[in-house]
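Hey, quick one: can you model this chain's 3D structure?
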Amino acid sequence: MPVEAIVTLILGALIIAAAALGLLRVIFHLAATSKSLAALDGGVKVIVAQTSTVPPVVTSVNASLAPVRGFAESI
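Sure thing. Here's the predicted structure for all 75 residues.
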């Protein structure tokens, strides 16, 4: 095998190895981004739960205050 063919094969292998290394880095960065987005999604769900609308609470408060309303109407 000529020397030029061996050099070409070595250079080709180096280029393919560099491309594979770059793709592996991209995979690891995407995995880290996915974990960050999952944590962010969990945080957003907590915020949504803590800032939910008032109507479910209002009905229970109104039910608790029914005796007070009855007393106020009797006055």
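One thing worth noting: The radius of gyration is 33 Å.
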